[in-house]
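It is worth pausing here to work through a concrete case rather than discussing structure prediction in the abstract. The textbook approach is simple: state the sequence, then state the predicted structure, then interpret. We follow exactly that order.
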Amino acid sequence: MSNSDKAVIEKIYAIIKRGNNVEIKGTKDGTIKVFEVKKKTVAV
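Step two, the predicted structure:
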């Protein structure tokens, strides 16, 4: 496992510990981007 892979996993765990969801997307150049997503339920 490379250092960049370890950094991605650490970012994922940090976001999950805050109680939010994570989205992971691959880029055209082969790198991985991690997004923190706050989802709210709205009753209509």
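Step three, interpretation. The chain has one domain: 3-37. The mean pLDDT is 91.
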